[in-house]
Amino acid sequence: MQQYDAIIVGAGAAGGIVAGVLAEAGWHVLLLERGPSLRFEDVPRDDIRSQRLSLYGHNAGPEIEGNPRVVVEPNGNERVVRPHEGGYHNNAACVGGGTRVYGAQAWRFMPQDFQMASLYGVPEGSSLADWPITYEDLKPYYERAERELGVAGQNDTLWGETAPDAAYPMPPVVPGPQTQALKRGAQQLGWRTFAAPLLINTVPYGGRAACIACKWCVGYACPTDAKNGTHNTLIPLALATGHCQMVTGAMTERIETDARGKVCGVSYFVEENGSARHESARAKVVIVSSGAIESARLLLNSHSAQHPHGLGNESDQVGRHLQGHYYPGASGLTEENVYNGVGPGVTCATNQFNHGNSGIIGGGMLCDDFIKPPIDFWYTSLPPDLPRWGAANKQYMRENYTRLLHVKGPVQEIPSPHGRVTIDPQVRDKWGIPVVRLSGTTHQATVATSEFMRHRAEEWLRASGCYKVWSQPRGIGLSGGQHQAGTCRMGHDPQTSVTDQCGRVHAHDNLFVIDGSLHVTNGGFNPVLTIMALAFRSAEHIAKNFN
Amino acid sequence: MPVQLTNLQQATLQAVVNRLIPVDEYPNAWDAGVGEYLARHFEGDLKHLVEAYANGLDALEQEAKARYGNGFGELTAPQQDAFLQDVEQGAVVTVWPIAPGKFFRLLVEHTMQGYYGAPLNGGNRDAVSWQMTGFESRR
Ligand SMILES: Cc1cc2nc3c(=O)[nH]c(=O)nc-3n(C[C@H](O)[C@H](O)[C@H](O)COP(=O)(O)OP(=O)(O)OC[C@H]3O[C@@H](n4cnc5c(N)ncnc54)[C@H](O)[C@@H]3O)c2cc1C
Question: What is the pTM of this model?
Answer without folding.
Answer: 0.98
